[in-house]
Amino acid sequence: MKILVTGTAGFIGYHLAQRLIERGDEVVGLDSVNDYYDPAIKYGRLAQTGIDQDRIEYNTLVTSSQYNNYRFIQLNLEEKVNLDRLFTEQKFDKVCNLAAQAGVRYSLINPQAYIDANIVGFVNILEACRHNDIQHLAYASSSSVYGLNESMPFATSDNVDHPVSLYAASKKSNELMAHTYSHLFGLPTTGLRFFTVYGPWGRPDMALFLFTKAILEDKPIDVFNHGKMRRDFTYVDDIVEGVVRVIDHPAKGNSDWSGQSPDPSCSKAPYKIYNIGNSNPVELMDFIEAIEQALGKKAQKNMMPIQPGDVPATWANVDDLVEDLDYQPNTAVQEGVQRFIDWYKDFYQIN
Predict the structure, then answer these.
(1) Pick the catalytic residue: 167, 181, 198, 271?
(2) Beta bridge partners of 2
C-alpha cells in the first residue's frame, strides 16, 4: 500500500512510519517540525529513518537515504493548497493522521494552536481524503475526551460530552467531523483514543521524560494530585501494533446500529472509534518507582495539587479492539521504562 503518515517527526508517528517502512509499504511522512518542544529530538527521529535535517526543504519531498520506500515532506496541515497538491500527485491508498498540537496543559496557554492544527488541519485532511478516493483514514484521538467521566474502565460506548481542556475538545471535534464525512461521503474513518503512550524517543513534555531528566540532574519532580493519579501507561510498540492492525482493516458500517439507542463508537456509516491502551492502570507512585529502579536513583518529590485540565485516572476498555483485531498489549511498565531509560542515556550520552 501507499500510505501517508502525518506527524512522523513526532513520537508515535516516527515509530509507526518505521514499522510500515520495514514491512514494505510505500510511505510518505509529513510533519511541520514545529518548536512546541526541542526540535533536536524531532530531527533525531527523522534521522533514524534516513531523513537528515540538512536535506529538508519546506514543502518538498525528500527521499530517505536508508529506505527506498520512504519519503518525507515538511508541511503544515493548515496549508490546504499544498496539502491538496500532495494528495493529487501522490495518490495515496490510506492515510494515518497523527499530526496534531499535543499537550493538555499547553492548551491553557496557547489555545489558537489547537484550533489551527487540530481543527483546521483535520478538516483539510478530511477534504483531501474525500476528493482523492482514500480507502481508509485512521486518526489520533485521545483518552482525554473522557473528561469528567468517572465510569471505569473508559468504554467507547460512554458519553464524552464533558471535556476539561481545549485539547480534549479538539479531539472530540475530530471524531464528530470524521463521522460527518463517513456519513455523507462514505469515507471509512477510524479514530484511536490513545492512552498515555511512553517509550524510546518519547515526548519531553510528558512525565517519564520530565521525571528522568530531573532525577538525573538531582532536581525535584512535581507529583500532581499528591501522587494519587492513575494512568493506563501503554508502551509505544504495543500502540504501533494496534495502529497497524487498524490501518489494515477499514471501518465498516454497522447494520445493527440504531438511532433510537445510538452507540457513539460506531454507525451505519463506515465509522469506528477504538480505545487503544494497556487496560492495566498504574499508580503514579508505582510508575515513579519503576523509573527510580531503572536509574538506580531516588527522586526528590514535590507533592502538588491536580493541574487544571488533568483527570485523576485513566483506564482503557479495549475489548472491542481485542475482539475485532486481536490486539494484545504485553509490555510491562518496568520493561518499557527500562527501554526508555536506555534510550535516554544513549541519546544524551549519559554514562
Answers:
(1) 167
(2) 26
The pTM score is 0.95
Joined together, the cell numbers standing for residue 302 give 514535590
User: How far is Cα 172 from Cα 163, in angstroms, rounded to an integer?
Assistant: 8
Candidates 182, 73, 173, 178; CA nearest to 117 is 173
Q: Are 22 and 54 in contact (CB under 8 A)?
A: no
Residue 217, amino acid? E
The grid cell for 328 is: 494484545
Question: What confidence score (pLDDT) does residue 309 get?
Answer: 74
Sign of CA dihedral 138, 139, 143, 146: negative
Report residue 283 as a C-alpha cell: 499508580
Contacts of 281 (CB under 8 A, 6+ apart): 153, 230, 231, 232, 313, 314, 315
197: which DSSP letter? E
Give the model confidence (pLDDT) of 149-201 as tens digits: 989 999 999 999 999 999 999 999 999 999 999 999 999 999 999 999 999 99
The answer to whether residue 167 is catalytic is yes
Residue 296 near residue 290 (C-beta atoms within 8 A)? no
Q: What is the dihedral of CA 119, 121, 123, 129, to 10 degrees?
A: -150
